[in-house]
Amino acid sequence: MSKSEKTCILFTNSFPYGHDENFIEKEVPFLSKYFEKVEIYSLNTSHETPKVLPSNVSMISWQASFKFSSRQLIIKHWILLIKVFYQEFKHQPKHTLSSFRGLLSDFLHQIRRAESMINALKKYDISSLVLYSYWMDRWASVLSIVKHYHPQFDFISRAHAFDLYEEDNRNAYIKFRKFQFQNIKHVYTVSHHGEDYLKLKYPQWGSKISTAYLGVIQHDFVNAMPDDKELKIVSCGSVQDRKRIKEIPQILSQLNTPFHWIHFGDGGEMDLLISNIKKHQIEDKVTLMGHVQNDVFLSYLKNEPVSFFLSLSRNEGLPYTMMEAISFGIPIIATDAMGCREICTVQTGILLPLNDDSKSVSQAIEKFAQSTLNTEAFRTGVKNFWKENFEAENNNFKFYKKIENTVTPST
User: Fold this and answer.
1) Of 45, 78, 261, 276, which has the most beta carbons under 10 Å away?
2) Is 176 left (phi over 0), alpha (psi -120 to 50) or beta?
3) Which residue has the higher pLDDT, 349 or 355?
4) Beta strand pairing status for 231-236 and 308-311?
């Protein structure tokens, strides 16, 4: 791999602060290997200690500009505001009218951020920049404003799930989407399902949309199968309605095969989950790990025998936890939610209908236990599928080469 001489500016929501974007931490070492320099601008401007970064990666301190009042901003940017809100009204007339004050306040804040970014970007050699937004969300709006006033600044963005599927958002609506598409150079979805969705929604910008899979790092071994006949079932995710974690106790209570369920994650429905575990009398067959660091989850997959990874989500982008599971050769049983069918295939496990009932899911688990999917040979195939499709070094470096060639700023 030849190292790029360019500087990549990575725009994040919180990384390198907090715990919400731990998967970005996995990507940063690859960015640092490919680009001469990486600089991170985060929307989280807290004063907490950031995560340790590679030597050529730095966190840039910045804050939105409050040089002008809201009234002054409206006067200064009235042409842009008319253009953007006319688009919003055409796209979502009822919501734009009912939420006008909130939308205006939000967009004015993105203008404040954009004015700050315009000043920050002046210090760079434009010809050596790659502007990379990890989410097609607030940063996409900020950078679209930058692009509107300074067309020389091209940028690209990934798109995952909440920042991609409008139906997953309040009022089935993502703010300023058409404005973002008009100004973005290219959008890289993390699944083909996401690519197809955006192209169907916005066919006029189809040439700006393609897929670039995420990836996880190489592991030199396959997770060992349990040496007894008890299924070791692992799940990972926030305990909330769309994840359907609370339904798992009822499913497992119908199994004839002995099992032990280990869940990583917590959330707003934790009390309901615990109540359901007690209701179905499986307390001695469940371990709730709670919220843990990603390294703890990976250590478990590395050191403890796991029969399969279970996901019943109603909506997902293309889950990073599933990539991690198959990187150890662990099979998957998952619902057909959005991009999940691209990772849960006949080569890796069992794909369930999206809203399968508890009895059908338990029957699928019983089928798995008695099938060739529950064998060492199948797990080797799972590992090979990961290697061919979701290996981090290969996927990341291919992606960086693409975005370097896509974003060629004008002078």
Assistant:
1) 261
2) left
3) 349
4) parallel
pLDDT tens track for 152-199: 999 999 999 999 999 887 777 899 999 999 999 999 999 999 999 999
* Tokens read off for 394: 């290969």
Which residue type is seen at 165?
Answer: Y
pLDDT at residue 407 tops 90: no
Give helix 294-303 / helix 320-327 axis angle, nearest 10°: 30
Cross-strand pairs, 352:
335
Model's pTM, two decimal places?
Answer: 0.92
The full 3-state SS of the chain, as one line of letters, equals CCCCCCEEEEEECCCCCCCCCHHHHHHHHHHHHHCCEEEEEECCCCCCCCCCCCCCEEECCCCCCCCCCHHHHHHHCHHHHHHHHHHHHHHCHHHHHHCHHHHHHHHHHHHHHHHHHHHHHCCCCHHHEEEEECCCCHHHHHHHHHHHHCCCCCEEEEECCCCCCHHHCHHHCCCCHHHHHHHCCEEEECCHHHHHHHHHHCHHHHHHEEECCCCECCCCCCCCCCCCCCEEEEEECCCCHHHCHHHHHHHHHCCCCCEEEEEEECCCCHHHHHHHHHHCCCHHHEEEEECCCHHHHHHHHHHCCCCEEEECCCCCCCCHHHHHHHHCCCCEEEECCHHHHHCCCCCCEEEECCCCCHHHHHHHHHHHHCCHHHCHHHHHHHHHHHHHHCEHHHHHHHHHHHHHHHCCCCC
Two domains, one topology: 7-215+392-406 and 231-389: yes
Question: Is the pLDDT assigned to residue 408 strictly greater than 70?
Answer: no
Bigger pLDDT: 293 vs 390: 390
The pLDDT-based confidence of 410 (bands split at 50, 70, 90) is very low
Domain 231-389 has CATH 3.40.50.2000: yes
Domain boundaries, the chain: 7-215+392-406, 231-389
